[in-house]
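2 proteins. here.
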Amino acid sequence: MDAKPSRREATHDRIVETAARAIRRAGYQGVGVADIMKEAGLTHGGFYAHFASRNALLVEAVERAGQDGLTNMTRHMAERQAAGASEFRALVESYLSDAHLVGAEHGCPVAALCSDIPRQAPEVRDASVLRVQGMVKLVKKTLPASAAADAAMVIASTMVGALQLARALGNNAQGKALLKANRQSLLAQHDQPD
């Protein structure tokens, strides 16, 4: 039996969950301790009972964002695979979807944070780099063994860049067209139906 989390653990988890959404919505710099605590329904004063610093919170938040993003992506991929899509097609169609275009707060932290990663403190940067590496591993897992050694890196870069550019254009015909063009190109080049 799993023990019910203590009140302190539940509160800590709520802060991390709130920060994980906030960093994907507003970037690392958009995460202020007071704002996160307020959004979590807590007082600012309780922050240091849970975290040694803002950076410690950011490390946990990016880890949580990565876990949540992977869980959501895996669920969407499973739905597409159940409908007959290859694993690669399911990944591309899920990642470069209209829903992901508007769902930054619940989506991939790599696309939401990529340009900010180099400017972070070492511990935050290291945690973020693990998310980038995880993205490449996820893509690689969907490719046949015969795929070029660097294919997963190229495909992950294409997908992240396409999502970032589509978000820059907005949830409109241009943004959706950019996603569609990238989906079609990636599938034409790399999809190996089961």
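next one coming up
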Amino acid sequence: MRQALTPLLDFRGADGHRAGEDRFNLLAAIDDTGSIAAAAKMVGLSYRAAWDAVNSLNNLFPRPIVIAAAGGRHGGGACVTTEGLRALTVHRLLTASIGEIVANLETTISGDPSVSFPAQSLLWSPIMKTSARNTYHGIVTSVEHGAVNAEVALKVAEDVVLTVIVTERSIDNLGIAPGAEAYALIKASTPILVSEDEPLRTSARNRLSGTVISVEKGAVNSEVVLDIGNGKTLCAIVTDDSAEDLEIRPGKRLGALIKASQIILAMG
């Protein structure tokens, strides 16, 4: 039986689950049921939370790990791709390995209250949840250095390259260089949505094009999710008035403007 972990070495959130565990449980359930709705019910997630998890996972991998067909809560289907099955296998192996490592560390430092081991910080993973609704895995293709800031090009999909402005100090601290893997974090309040029918000249370095796949209206703001291709999605928050003015609805093509200075880079 696996040895119980102390709170210091336990990578569990407030809900009692390990970081990222709920997403991979959902992925396994989708593989079993062939449906996001059925999988959500199986693992105890709402339909919306399940879709958010699927979109997040697809954004974190170079290729889609779940491909879904339209159908809503009670129809359609979903398929876990070869990439997704590989991710499930690796996650299971990694979870088992980390469990053994942490158990060994706990045994090593047990009985010595003076030893503090910040394991959760040292074993940080991009699977952890953040307040940024959009997180993309990518490869740094170029770094253009300046006196204070540097411009980084991050390829997150075959035809999607994000331009990011970071300080030269961050370049040194994070070890950002061409060929390095990195994650781009974009808050949902950051993208500015514009109509594809009205070309604009703006100072925003990033303009992504996508098709609206969902719109959820709130009391003041609306949450809009765009399919930007290659299995990637972008979540944006706009006011209800803006959603009405732009006539945002599923199937409509929109552009998303994102300033290079408003993207946060993280290294795994």
